[in-house]
Structures are given as structure tokens and as C-alpha cells.
Amino acid sequence: MSSGAGKPGAEETAGRTEVATRMAEAAGAWLDSLDPGQREMAVGPPPAAGDESEVERTRWYYTPTDHGGLTFHEQRPAQHRLVMRLVASGLSEAGYTTVATILGLENVLDRVEGFSVNWGRERTRDPGEYYLRVFGEPGGPRPWGWRFGGHHVSLNYLVVDGRIAASTPNFLGADPAAAPLLGGAALRPLGSAEDLARELVRSLHPELAARAVLLPRPPNDVVTGNSARVADRAVKRAELWRPGHHVPDRAEQPVTGLDGADQRALAFTPAPRGVAGSELDAAQRELLRGLLGTYLDRVPEGVSPLSRYDDPASLDAVHLAWAGSTTAGEPHYYRLQGPRLLIEWTNVHRGANHAHAVWRDPETDFGGDVLADHHDAHHQATTYRR
Fold it and tell me: Could you tell me the pLDDT band of residue 99, with boundaries at 50, 70 and 90?
């Protein structure tokens, strides 16, 4: 089962079925509202293990590029509401509020940049440039899924046999990461994911801290970028954009901005780097579990694997690694890694006021393992009937 450590219990399986039912209802209502031209953009082929059609479903972005699907601009306001109903079905209340805030931040970012950035389209920082695509037939007997994304948001879900089979990659970002509100308050959609991690790394004894901090400088972006499958390779900046939609500067450079020994120091490896949860004291372990919650509780309670980390052995296996400064307001990066778990965070640009935060399954994002099992079971049943 994708998106967590180990297999789900009966309670979690029931929760995944309930959420999948809500998703199917919401997705069906949205699809029913579309005209034929809209449906052509909105619907992709059903998920199929090892099929060439999977290339598009497993293509994902977090930059302001073409994510594939139907944008808000191509829909009526009533359809916008149906889009957000589907988005809400895949998120907790806090997760939905955070995503809705990130969409609105495009207007704030436009002001930060003086309403001046121009990449050759009518508006560059655009809260209407978010895409939804459904793969397959919601609620039917075959696997189906959906993807919602745009700048700083990428949500990916797979439903197999009537229950949620995968909810990763799940990417959220914020630019600006902190912005002023009236009365001296600050808007920080991802603030807890930064604060808890910094508190944890600063609480480490010097020996553990020396092992946790892999590099004194942070990468420019999350190490695994938007790769379809987590692997030890340097993702290039060009890969963050759909071909032909925008050509970034320094396109052939790695997204991390690192090379040589620095790149190797932070490269993803199947064996986690840093400090294991088993080496932390009780207070630090509580911080670690709280930090996991800022990612895993983006999705509904029935889908989130957070409760699995109530098991001490599961928390023991989660490793914390850091790069860059541990001082608030300075550029930094961290990674949490364990069985079926990879979390990456970076806050480097705009004076450390531009955050990226992604939750992934390093073994099988997009639910490829569940699809393969489903295919094998279906194929065997078909062969037997013959």
C-alpha cells in the first residue's frame, strides 16, 4: 500500500474506502458538468500498470507550468466549486485550508514582484492557472485517479478496488513563505513544518547534530525534484517545466544548484542518512511525530498513515537530515526518510522566504505497486475463467 510505512489496518482500510466514495461522487459531479470540449482536456486514460499511458499520469510539476488538464480559466464559476469539492475530498480540513491559501498567494506573489513578471502569457502569477485531470472512470470497477496542480500545489490520488491506494506525491509550497497581516500577525501556510524541524535539529546534542547536518549549505530545491520515481539522480531545472511551456534559465543545471562532493553529500540514497528516531529522547521523538503530522495530516484521517508512527519501531526508523543554517530566517533544507517515507523541505530563495515541502513514497509513488497487484489478480482470474 502506497503512501506510508507498512500495510494499513482494518480501520485505515475502511477510511480509505469512505474517502474514495466521496472522491468518486465529487469527480463524477464535476465530469457531468463538462461539455464535450472540456471533457477532452479533463479526462485521461485509466491507470494501468506498465502501460505507456501511465507516462502522463506520473508526470507532475510544482512550477507555474502546464500541469495537464482543465484550468479554472476554462470553466464556469459553478464548475470551479465542483473542482474545489473534489480537492477537498482528498484533504483534511487543515490541508484544504492550506491549499486554498496557497492558491491565493499567487496574488500576493504578484505584488511582491511588482506585478511585472512576464513569461509570455496573459498573466504569469495566476490563481486561475490550476489544472484538474481525472484518469479513468470514477467509481467504476477499474482503477481510476485524479491530479490537481499548479504553482506550488501537486495532489495525486489513485483509487483501486474502491479504496484510496496512493496519495503521493503530495507537494505544497509557499512564496512568500511568510507575509504580513493586519495587527502584526503573519500568514505562514507551512510555518509549523519549518518551526518544528528547526526546534528538533537545534535540540540535538552536538554529536548527533554533527551527524544530522550533512552540508553547511542548502540545496536550491528539493533533491528529488519532480521525478516520476524517487532515485539517486540529479534532476535538471528543465524537467520542472512541461516541454514547450517555459524555458527556465540554466535549464541543464541540477535543481539543487550543487555538484561534485556537495551533490553527493545530499543525494537521495535508499539507506537513510542523518539521525534515526531511535537515537532521540522522548521530547525529541514527540517533536518528530509532530513534524510528520504537518505532512501526513494533509490528507483525511482515514487516509493519513500518521497513526502508524504510534508504533515506536516505526518512529525509530525515521531519519532526520539537515543542510544549511539552523538559525531562523536563514536558508536551510531538511529531509525525513524511512520505510515508504520521504519528506523534503527547502526554504532558500527570496531571503529564505520561499518554501517547498513534499511528501513522497520512495518505493512507489502513484501507487504502482497496487496497480501491479491488481493487474496480476485480474489477469490470473481471466486466465482461470478461460
Answer: very high
Q: How do residues 114-161 score in pLDDT, each as one tens digit?
A: 999 998 889 999 999 999 999 999 998 999 999 999 999 999 999 999
Return phi, psi of residue 43, to 5°. Answer: -115, 130
From the number of C-beta atoms within 10 Å of its C-beta (0-12, 13-18, 19+), residue 298 rates as buried
Rounded CA separation 137/152 (Å): 27
Give the span between the Cα atoms of 298 and 89, in whole angstroms: 11
Using the predicted structure, report yes or no on whether residue 311 has a pLDDT greater than 70. Answer: yes
Look at residue 2 and tell me whether its pLDDT is greater than 90: no
Query: By the 8 A CB rule, do 108 and 114 touch?
Result: no
Could you tell me which residues are beta bridge partners of residue 341? 338
Q: Residue 224: what pLDDT?
A: 98
Angle at 360 between CA 355 and CA 362, to 5 degrees: 130
Per-residue pLDDT of 8-45, as tens digits, reads 566 678 899 999 999 999 999 999 999 999 999 999 99
Helix residue ranges per DSSP H, the chain:
10-32, 36-42, 54-57, 77-89, 93-112, 191-203, 206-212, 260-266, 282-296, 312-316, 349-352, 368-385
Q: Which residue has the cell 496497480?
A: 371
Give pLDDT, residue 383: 34
Residue 89 CB coordination number (10 Å):
20
Q: What is the pLDDT of residue 10?
A: 65
Contacts of 153 (CB under 8 A, 6+ apart): 62, 99, 102, 103, 130, 171, 172, 173
Neighbours of 51 (CB within 10 A): 13
∠ Cα 209 211 214 (to 5°): 100
What torsion, rounded to 10 degrees, do the Cα atoms 324, 328, 333, 337 define?
120
